[in-house]
Write a structure and sequence with these properties.
By secondary structure, this protein is mostly beta strands. It is built from no helices and nine strands. The protein has a four-stranded antiparallel β-sheet with strand order 4-5-6-7, with no helix packed on it. A three-stranded antiparallel β-sheet has the order 1-2-3, with no helix packed on it. A two-stranded antiparallel sheet has the order 8-9. The chain is globular, with a radius of gyration of 16 Å.
Length: about 110
C-alpha cells in the first residue's frame, strides 16, 4: 500500500540489505522508483503505511518517511512484534513476544 493507487512500498527483510523500496504503479505494471539501503534492522519485518501521518511503520519499531527513506523515529522495543499505527490517536500499538509459550486454559 502507498500514499495513493500509483505508489507501493516494500521492505527487504529476507537478507542483510534491509532495503526500503518505493514502487510506481501504472497501466503497464509496477516499476522501482527508489531503493533505500539499510533502512531496517531485522529479518521478517513487516511494514505498515499510515495514510494520515504519511509514514511507514515497521514491526521492529522504525518509523520511516517514504519520500526519502529516512528514519524519523524509533520505538524502543525489547522484542520486535507485530504492530499497527493509529494516527487518529497519535499512537502505535505493538504486541511483543516475551518468548513464553502459553496454552489456552479452559474452565
Amino acid at each position: 500500500m502507498g500514499a495513493d493507487d500509483t505508489t507501493l512500498y516494500a521492505a527487504d527483510s529476507e537478507d542483510t540489505g534491509f532495503d526500503f523500496y518505493t514502487l510506481a504503479v501504472n497501466a503497464i505494471g509496477v516499476s522501482l522508483t527508489h531503493d533505500y539501503p539499510s533502512v531496517f534492522d531485522s529479518f521478517g519485518n513487516k511494514i505498515h503505511f499510515d495514510k494520515a501521518s504519511g509514514l511507514v511503520y515497521a514491526d521492529d519499531g522504525q518509523a520511516i518517511d517514504p519520500s526519502n527513506g529516512s528514519p524519523v523515529g524509533i520505538f524502543d522495543l525489547s522484542d520486535a512484534g507485530v504492530m499497527v499505527p493509529d494516527s487518529t490517536l497519535n499512537e502505535a500499538f505493538f504486541a511483543e513476544d516475551d518468548g513464553t509459550d502459553r496454552e489456552l486454559q479452559s474452565q
